[in-house]
Amino acid sequence: MRKSYLFCFLFVLTGLFGQKKDKLYPVTVYEKIWQERNTDVRLKMIKSIWLEESTFEDASASIKGIAAFNNVINDFYKKYPDAVLTSGAKIVKDNYVSWDWKIQDSKNKLIMGGREFARLNGKGQISKIISFWNKDATLSEADILKNLEADNLEVVEKYFESLFKTKDLNAIATLIDDEAVYNQATGLPYGGIYKGLDEWNKMFAKSAEFFDFQIEKEPVYFSDASKNEVFIYFTISCKAKKSGKTLSMPVSEHFDLKNGKITGITPFYFDTKQFAEFLKSKK
């Protein structure tokens, strides 16, 4: 008898969970619809949960019907082609479901946020959506740090490309702060502290008197967004102009950044003494 009661209890419990899952099914499909870029595929998905009487309202549109809803999403992706949508936990009450959402671009920058309210018809379809936009929506601290890290890495990557490959000093000028400081080891023939772009250019010119180089191993990047720091590690192959000798030297560079610009660079050579002697040696 106990086994029979237990079986019935589990059967009812499973049924309740199943109903809850089925109830949220149209909302799950609705979110996938917003993720779908292909308009024809999306239209088929819409038809599975949307009726010609179903309505959608937000700050930009008030429509009824299947094709009209598909057009709303088409227009959205024309305006935000790289948008990525995320949503929070669902709150279910009777035939109503609500949840928070955010839209970010491919670089994790916040485009907009808001809250969605859906009315279900109890037959696996949505009868109404009201979407509220929240102009004061913000990203979490983790997302903010993630965005900052991506921005800092992009700045440093552009700097590396401009300095070591394209030799574009004009591009470098857009990446560094007016008071940016470059710390070169004092043991080097061009060692010292250089402040500002003009001083940096003098340092670059002076270092070019001693050696030519090429990148032997591309850089590996490490970032700490909480401290606005980026580290890179790479290897250069050098040829001393005085002696004609060649040397392979691992180098790491520490970057400080603020407000999207480089405020300081400190390079570290694997063997600064060896590198200095190499640059000064004669034939």
Please, could you describe this protein's structure?
Residues 1-21 have low confidence and may be disordered. Strands 1, 2, 3, 4, 5, 6 and 7 form a seven-stranded mixed sheet that branches. This protein is of the alpha+beta class. β12 and β13 (261-269) form a beta hairpin. The chain has seven helices and 13 strands. The longest helix is centred in the first third of the chain and has 34 residues, at 2-35.
Shape from CA axes? elongated
- Low-pLDDT segments, ≥5 res: 1-21
The multimeric state of the shown protein is single chain
Q: What is the chain-wise order of helices and strands?
A: HHEEHEEEEEHHEEHEEEEH
Chain-averaged pLDDT: 88
Radius of gyration: 30 Å
User: What structural class is derived from the secondary structure elements?
Assistant: alpha+beta
What is the β-strand count?
13
Task: Give the structure's gist in a few sentences.
By secondary structure, the protein is of the alpha+beta class. It contains seven helices and 13 strands.
SSE topology sketch:
Blueprint: H1 2-35, H2 39-49, E1 50-57, E2 62-64, H3 66-79, E3 84-87, E4 91-93, E5 96-104, E6 110-120, E7 126-134, H4 141-164, H5 169-173, E8 176-184, E9 192-195, H6 197-208, E10 211-224, E11 229-240, E12 246-258, E13 261-269, H7 272-280
Parallel strand pairs: 1-7, 8-13
Antiparallel strand pairs: 1-2, 3-5, 4-5, 5-6, 6-7, 8-9, 10-11, 11-12, 12-13
Helix pairs in contact: 1-2, 2-3
Any descriptors?
283 residues, alpha+beta, 7 helices, 38% strand, elongated
